[in-house]
Amino acid sequence: MIKKLITIQIANGLEARPVALLVQVASQYVSEIHVEVGDKRVNAKSIMGMMTLGLESGETINVVSSGIDEEEAIADIEKYLSAAS
């Protein structure tokens, strides 16, 4: 299991379209991937779960990945969330 703090650098935060793209990135991996913010923990492969977080640009989240491709999953999610748009 890997945990990594990642700061969201997408200009408008995680609105519907960026959330859908994040879910697509996460869904490419076999590993379980969760996003933690405060006391909330949601499946990163769930559009509805991710939308409930209402994440803004500049917020820091904890991404947790567990499985055979956990390192690649975290790296790709960090790359996506760090891409200033």
Question: Which short descriptors sum up this protein?
Answer:
single chain; 85 residues; alpha+beta; four-stranded antiparallel beta sheet; 3 helices; 4 strands; 27% strand; globular
Secondary structure elements and their pairing?
Layout: E1 2-7, H1 16-27, E2 32-37, E3 40-43, H2 47-51, E4 60-66, H3 70-82
Antiparallel strand pairs: 1-4, 2-3, 2-4
Task: Give your account of this protein's structure.
The chain contains 3 helices and 4 strands; from the N terminus they run βαββαβα. By secondary structure, it is α+β, with helices and mostly antiparallel strands. It has a 4-stranded antiparallel beta sheet with strand order 1-4-2-3, covered by helices on one side. The termini are far apart.
- As laid out across the biggest beta sheet, the strand order is 1-4-2-3
Strand content: 25-35%
Structural class: alpha+beta
Helical content class:
25-40%
Computed CA radius of gyration, to the nearest angstrom: 11 Å
- Low-confidence stretches are none
Q: Give the topology string: H per helix, E per strand.
A: EHEEHEH
Question: How many DSSP-defined strands?
Answer: 4
Mean pLDDT, as a whole number?
95
Determine the N-to-C terminus distance: 30 Å
Q: Figure out the total of helices.
A: 3
Shape: globular
Main sheet characteristics: 4 strands, antiparallel
Offer a concise description of the structure.
By secondary structure, the protein is α+β, with helices and mostly antiparallel strands.
